[in-house]
Amino acid sequence: MSASVNTVILVGALARKPELVPLAARGTACSLRLVVKDVLEDATTGEPREREDFFDVDVFGARAEICHTRLREGSEVDIAGRLRWREWRAEDGQKRSAVSIIDDIPF
Predict the structure, then answer these.
(1) Would you write out the chain's pLDDT as a tens digit for each of its 107 residues?
(2) What is the assigned CATH class of domain 8-102?
(3) What is the model's pTM?
(4) Residue 102 CB-half CA count within 13 A
(5) Half-sphere exposure of 90 toward its Cβ, with a 13 Å CA cutoff?
């Protein structure tokens, strides 16, 4: 069986203030929203066009506390972690899914 790799590295800025979330079993988590900007060529005009991609990032434990106290909206950050896919059923009965990044790799 071949080995799998689940690693992502992003460099961007925080799109909002970090949110500290208490967890019953695992202490605390810090929820971050990262914006990564890229410049692409417009297919019609050939002109450069800026594109923004937004990513949800979860940080746990002592690192969560550090992120919450030291980072602000607009802070530039480097994220190294792994992708986590989750699925749930919303209150309206619709199936929902999301991909987030778990920041757990020293960078």
Answers:
(1) 778 899 999 999 999 999 999 888 768 899 999 999 999 998 889 899 999 999 999 999 889 999 999 999 999 999 999 999 989 899 999 999 999 999 987 65
(2) mainly beta
(3) 0.81
(4) 10
(5) 6
